[in-house]
Every structure is written in structure tokens, then in C-alpha cells.
Amino acid sequence: MDAIKITEAVKRYPEFTLGPISMSVRQGEFFGIFGPPSTGKTSILKLILGLLSPDEGRVEIAGQDAAGLDVSARGISMVFQNLALFPHMTGRENIIFPLKERGAPEAEISNRLDMVSEVLHVSHILHKNPAQMSGGERQRIALGRAFAAHSRAMLLDEPIAALDARLREEMRVELKRLQRENNQAFVYVSHDEEEVMAISDRVAVIIGGRIAQIGTPDEVYTEPCSIDVAGVIGSPPMNFFKGRFSDNALHFESDALGTRIPVVGTTQKGGVGTLGVRPEDIWLGETQGNPSLKVRIVTVEPLGGYTIVNARAGKQIVKIRAPGQVVLEEGAWQSVSVDARRLHFFGPDGVRL
Amino acid sequence: MTDQAHTGEARTTRPQGYWASVARDGQKMGFWFILPTFLLLLFIVVFPFFMQLYLSVTWWTPLEGIPWYSAWEVFSWFDNYLTLATDPRLWGALWRTALIMIVAVPAQFFLGMALAYLFIDQFPGRKLFYSILLTPMMIVPAVVGLMFFLLFQGTGPVNAHLGLPADFSWLTDVNRAMISVIVADIWQWTPLMFLILLAGMLGVPSDQLLAARLLGGSNWQNFVKIILPRMKTVIIIALVLRTVECFKIFDLIYIMTKGGPGVQTETISVFLYKQTFGDLEWSYVAAIGLTILIVLSVIAAKGLAYMARKQG
């Protein structure tokens, strides 16, 4: 059953239209929503929460039309970006707040508190006020409060964006574990592509108020359905080469490449298009059976596990992600080859061919 | 050569003497900077205080025929203090001041809170209503006094609206005079409460309110559990501010009733004013003023200590 289902929902603002949005989140699924800033991610959460009502289309919660349901009746909890902990309450009071509000019996409250604090490892900070906690501790209390509510689904709006990098990675693992243990539906919103890809079962890529693509992180990465998606997923971003297809649909030609790339899998005859190549699919040196080209090295960024090489091909900069550490002289000519199996061709309208 | 000339020049231009040492020594210079203010303060705070203390232990009045500094000629020990301890008019004035505080301040608080709650959300015309609501506190209190003086006349609008006869008096009635004064004070100062409380209410982050709503709290529960605790400081400030102001209430009463009928609306300020400029009992007023100062200082110190203890 779908925990959350949005069908053809449209919300119009004076200068921005969200949708039509169609997506469903299955029970027990970790669903990521990714998109550049201010593309309507939070508006989708608001639609689910009921803070916004769609102008068209419908929102269903657990198979039930949510149109008439009040925010508090939807059984959805949320972790806010700034956590929104109640600063005048201790960790314990924060966590049991939803239970108290519901008038749950004392026994249930203490059971639930024990369970939540065990799962989140917060027993030792329950007596503290949020102001006395570290960022990670506050994060756990906020999660605990959302868990204690016993909700159908959990929305997380950039919940770990404010933490430092190391803690973010820890919390990522933690979140996934909690989600699996509770078998709850999670909707996770972030503008950090790596975070969403790492944690989600499926990802919706939102661009300009519309869902550009929904799929597993792997699908979205290896088969982006448009230039827009290909451009926002992956870091460093995909290299794009504008050019045209040969009339016999066998080759793609681009001024920047200076070579003809054999086209596989499409039958585009003539016309302009774009070739996308991920930085890791460009290899230093020539390789058997792969098209190669000459580039001029501009800068080299050694990053430990891999090296980013910025090179000039024709008039444009090409980013190459080479494994390990490589030594290249800036300004030197270098021949590189592109992985012929992992080329992305897009038509003139930016749609994947 | 040039080096020597340079150092020689430097030596001759170095300042000498006391004022130079003042200029060099920051602390000494600072003293001279604060001296004028210090002297001024001495005259407007310290000198009157001792003058008051001095007069309060004499029988001196401006009618005595001797200048105030010769008041020792009519030295009276603590007679003024003994008098004030048993002066029914003084105690009555204190009680009436307290009554106004007890009634008006909570009324202003609850009205202000209710109005602020209405103004949390946006609605059409919010700015207009906001401006209109704030008008009363911008009016000079004496003018408000005059307004209510006119409103509460026997033939005035209040009686007309309530369908009361013209001989149904407010300002000259033993009980209703106080009601009129309190109503005027509430009318004028509810806006200030509203303003402060609304600021406090808007200071509660909307995410926290939304979180509380999502977690199942009703509006009333959220108000009590989330909004009120977060407004604690603002509420204390608003209440203290209004209580202190209320203690000093004068203009409204002086214009509306002159403390009458009889002494029925005579508050401490009105009483002191009458004693000073009506009866010219300056030494007695000095004793009262000092006593109130000491009592209030003790209360304030205790209150501050209590709050400090609670916070720590």
C-alpha cells in the first residue's frame, strides 16, 4: 500500500507553478526528494502535511483522500531543518510531548520513551535542555520526538544540513537504520545530492517545480532522463558537448571533441544534440575500442582518493575524475579516451535519446 | 645628522607638565571627562536626596518664614514619620493606588494578550486595525483624561448609550468614580500591553508552532505549552512596566476627578500633589517620599534577588 500518494497535484503561485506532481511513497520506503534550492521541494512537503491544499489533483494518505484532513489528523510527523525543538523543555519533555498531547496513559509514555531513547542512544541527555546539547544530540532528540508520535510517515526537511560533515555521515547511517527498524515511510528532502543518493531507496529529482525523474539512485545516476537531471546529479557535474548527429545516425560530431564519436543505441538521423559524459568516464590515455581526443591540462586538483583534472577541449573546459593520484603538467597536451558504453545522448529538446 | 635633528625635534615637542601627564595617562583624562556629568548628577540626585532627608525631620513649611536651610530651628525628630504611619488619608491613597493596579493591570494584560493572539495571523486590514489599536497610547494622558471626563458626564455619551438618566453620575459618585478612572486607564494602556505581547508572540518561531500542531496539540494546548513559556520574559517586562506606571498614575485622575469625590479616587501621586501644592506640607511630603522610596527599593531588591535565584 502507498503510505503517501500524490496524483497530478498542481499548486499555483503568482510567479511559480508547482506541478503537476505525481508520486507515491510505499510503506517502509525511504523516499528522497532532491532538487536545487527553491524548486518546490518544501512545497511538496507542505502538500503532504496539509499546510497547502493543491489547486488541482489529490493527495492521499494511507489510501484515504486527505483533502478534508486537518494537519494534526494526518498522522505524519516531521523533522524540521532547524529541528524546532521546544527550548523550554528538557529532552525528555520534548520527546514525550506528542504522547502527552494525545493524553496517552503514563505506562505507554514511559514505555515509548524507553524504546525511543534506547534506539537513539539519548538516555544520558534526557535531562538536558536543548541549549545544553550538542548539534548531534539535538538532532537525536528531534528525531526521537518525531518517532514517539507513532506516525504513519515521517517527513525530513534537510534534517542534517546544519551538522558538520563527519556528523552528517554518522546521522545518515543512523537515519537509514532507524527507518529500516521502524519500517516507516520516510520522505527525505535535501539539496545535497550525495546525501539523498546515499540514503534513499528511490529519488525524485525536482527541477523548476516539476518532477524531472523518479527512480532508484542508480537509475537516476546512470540513466538521467534529461540534460537537467544529468546536470544536477553527480559531482563534479557531467560534461556536455553540443554537436550534431551524422545523417546516417552512426556518429556524433562536436567541435569541442575534435573527433567523431560512434553513436550506439539511438537512431537519431542528423540534427543537433548534446553528448554527456561523466567525469569518471573519461580516462587518461588511449584505450582500446574507445574514442579518444587530445586535451590541454588546465589545473589538477588532487583530492586524495581521486584527482579532478580540468582540461581544455576545443573552447570548453572538461572535467575528468581520475582514480588515485595522478601527476600531470599544467599546460601540457594529454590524450584521453571516453568510455563508449557510458555515453549519454540528448536530443535538441534536452530529452535523453 | 638628519637622525639627530629628528630626535631633537621629537624631544622638544613632547608635552610637559600636569596637563601633559593627563593627556598621556588615559585614566586621569577619563576623570576629567566624566567630571561635569558627575557634578551635574551630584546636584540633581544626591543633593535633593539629602535635602529631602533634612526637611523630613523638621516641621518646616514654606509658610514658616525662614529659608529651608534654617529648618533645623523647627527640628521635630521623627514626628513626620510617626504621623504618616497612622495617616488614614495616606493609607487610603495607597490602598486606592493598589486597587487600580490590581484591577487595571490584569485587565490590560488579558485584553492585550487576547488582541495579540488575534493579530498573529495575517488578515485583510491587519495593518489598519493595528494602527487604530495603538492610537490610545499615543494620546497625551491629560487629553485622555479630558476625553473620559466628557464621556462620563451625566449628559455624556456613556449614559446616553447605556440608556441611563442624566442624573446618573459617574465622576461624582462615591463608587463609580473609581470605575470611570480604571476604565480610562485600561483604555489608554491596553495598547501598550498588546504591542509588547504581540512582539513576544511573534518571536516564537513558527516552526515550533507547526511542530506542536503536527504532534497533535490543540490550539489551546499549544498556546499554554509552547507560546506562553516562550513569552515569559516579555510577559514579566510588560507586567512590571505597567505596574510601575500604574503606581504613578496622576494625569488621568487629576483631570477627571481631581481625586474626588472627597478622596474617593485619590491615589498616592494625587495625594502627594495636594499635600505639596495645596496644603504646603513640604516636610511631611518629604518624609512620605523617602518612606515610599525605601519600601519600594526593598521590594525591588527582593524581587530582583528572587528572579536571579530562579534563573540561576
TrEMBL record, chain A:
Family matches, as InterPro entries: AAA+_ATPase, ABC_transporter-like_ATP-bd, ABC_transporter-like_CS, ABC_transpr_MalK/UgpC-like, Mo/tungstate-bd_C_term_dom, NA-bd_OB-fold, OB_MalK-like, P-loop_NTPase
GO molecular function: ATP binding
Keywords: ATP-binding, Cell membrane, Membrane, Nucleotide-binding, Translocase, Transport
Secretion signal span: none
Start and end residues of each ABC transporter domain: 1-233
Top-level taxon of origin: Bacteria
Coiled-coil positions: none
Membership in a protein family: Belongs to the ABC transporter superfamily.
Database matches in PANTHER family: MALTODEXTRIN IMPORT ATP-BINDING PROTEIN MSMX (PTHR43875), TREHALOSE IMPORT ATP-BINDING PROTEIN SUGC (PTHR43875:SF15)
Protein's recorded name: ABC transporter ATP-binding protein
Native organism: Albidovulum litorale
Lineage, opening ranks: Bacteria, Pseudomonadati, Pseudomonadota, Alphaproteobacteria, Rhodobacterales
TrEMBL record, chain B:
ABC transmembrane type-1 domain: residues covered: 94-303
Presence of the UniProt keyword Transport in the record: yes
Primary localization class, coarse: membrane
Keywords in alphabetical order: Cell membrane, Membrane, Transmembrane, Transmembrane helix, Transport
Membrane topology qualifier: Multi-pass membrane protein
Lineage: superkingdom: Bacteria
Cellular compartments annotated: Cell membrane
Transmembrane stretches, start-end: 31-55, 98-120, 132-152, 186-204, 234-256, 282-301
PANTHER family per the UniProt record, alphabetical: BLR7065 PROTEIN, SPERMIDINE_PUTRESCINE TRANSPORT SYSTEM PERMEASE PROTEIN
Family the entry assigns: Belongs to the binding-protein-dependent transport system permease family.
Protein name: Sugar ABC transporter permease
Organism listed in the record: Albidovulum litorale
